[in-house]
Amino acid sequence: MQTVVAIYTGQGLAEPLKKVFQELLPDIRLISIIDDSLIGDVNRAGHIPDLVSRHLVQYYRHAEELGADVILNTCSSVGDVAEVARTVIGIPIVRIDDSMAARAVASYARIGVLATLPSTLEPTLRLIQSKADEAGAQVQLVSGLAEGAFDALIRGNPEEHDRLLLETAKRVAETADVLVLAQGSMARMEQALAEATSTPVLSSPRSGVEQVKALLTAALEAKKA
Asked: Which residue range is the domain that position 68 belongs to?
């Protein structure tokens, strides 16, 4: 049985992502490592502190010890750590937003990025620009920070969170061909935002798991060859 270790910096995405795994990869062994102190440390610092990076690398190494075939890094805010760790970890590390970013630059020129936290917005913008550079594509990035939305969610007011995100999406959609959701936890809003803005919306959870599935399938085929 193949094993995937998903590493979370918060609680919110674990259950929704588990359902995607059950749909797309029902026969794998899925292990979740959740340390919800990490995203708080990133948000307070406004960047990824060294201690957070060290903890994440420790979790990647632990995933190796658990027999993981693939590691899924589920938090876009710490995607840069996953990128660097690929050079020292002996198994593939998938950034949950990697495929989403590649799809965006392959199909659209004006890309709006929606986030509720600056610590997620900036890494996602960098990732998309990196994918564009790799593909030789010219893209225009439009930042969409829904200020106050994350705080509303923390206060237990998801309706206010959704309202602020929707307002931001409508504004960004005026100058964008596609909307990219920087946080996987925002995927539940994908359809509502697309309908409200008449603009395609991309989210990361499903495409991230699809990338994991592709790697696992390729590994099985290589063993058979």
From this structure: 3-96+206-224
